[in-house]
Structure formats: C-alpha cells, structure tokens
C-alpha cells in the first residue's frame, strides 16, 4: 500500500485555493463568487487537516469543524442575500446592482 505524501495534499490545496481566488477576482456572478469562496475555505480546510494528520494532532480537526460550520452559515446567509437582490434587481451580476463588492 502506497502512502500519499504531505506535499501532494498541500499542492492540491494550493491549486484549489488558486482556482477559488481566480474565480472570486474574475467572475461577476454573485453565486459563482460564493462558490469560489467555498472552494477557498475547503482548500484551507484540506491544508489544516493535512498538518493535523501528519503531526497526529486532533486540534486541527476541531478547527476544521468550526470553519465548516461558519462556511455553512455564510452560504445560507449569502444565498439569502443573493435571492433578495435577485428579487429586487432581476440579476445576480454584481456589476448591474447598486452593491459593489470590489470598489
């Protein structure tokens, strides 16, 4: 049985984080931006779990549990905000709304 190295998980985490960052910076659809933020949070969770697993520490799993709880709350509140904006403006494109996220 081959053991996967710590570097593999960290490279995968950095790739996922980079994809999420590019998604946040380039996309204008609010739902896609929220999905990209979730991808970035999951990439951070993967790196925390990697360090916790390879150092035999359970504190990292507790931290990831709380990060996932905050991410679930963020997704629920963010989706509610996007739905209310869509009902008012009939679009989820952040350039067409009066709400500006980046400037």
Helix-strand string: HHH
State the distance separating the first and last CA atoms.
Answer: 52 Å
Q: Give a quick account of the main beta sheet: strands, pairing sense, barrel closure.
A: none
Q: How much beta, percentage-wise?
A: under 5%
Number of helical segments? 3
Q: How many distinct beta strands?
A: 0
- Silhouette: elongated
Rg calculated over all Cα atoms: 17 Å
Low-pLDDT stretches are none
What level of helicity do the residues show? over 70%
Mean pLDDT: 86
Query: Helix- and strand-based class?
Result: mainly alpha
Explain this structure to me?
By secondary structure, the chain is mainly α. It is built from three helices and no strands. The longest helix has 31 residues, at 59-89.
Offer a concise description of the structure:
Helices cover 75% and strands 0% of the residues.
Q: What is the element layout, followed by pairings?
A:
Elements lengths: L5 H21 L3 H25 L4 H31 L14
Any key phrases for this structure?
about 100 residues; mainly alpha; about 0% strand
């Amino acid at each position: 049985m081959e053991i996967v190295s710590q570097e593999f998980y960290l490279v995968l985490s950095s790739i996922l984080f980079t994809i999420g960052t590019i998604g946040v910076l380039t996309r204008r659809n609010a739902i896609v931006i929220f999905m990209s933020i979730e991808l970035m949070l999951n990439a951070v969770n993967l790196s925390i779990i990697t360090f916790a697993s390879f150092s035999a520490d359970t504190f990292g799993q507790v931290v990831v549990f709380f990060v996932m709880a905050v991410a679930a709350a963020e997704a629920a509140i963010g989706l509610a905000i996007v739905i209310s904006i869509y009902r008012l403006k009939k679009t989820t494109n952040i350039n067409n709304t009066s709400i500006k996220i980046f400037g």
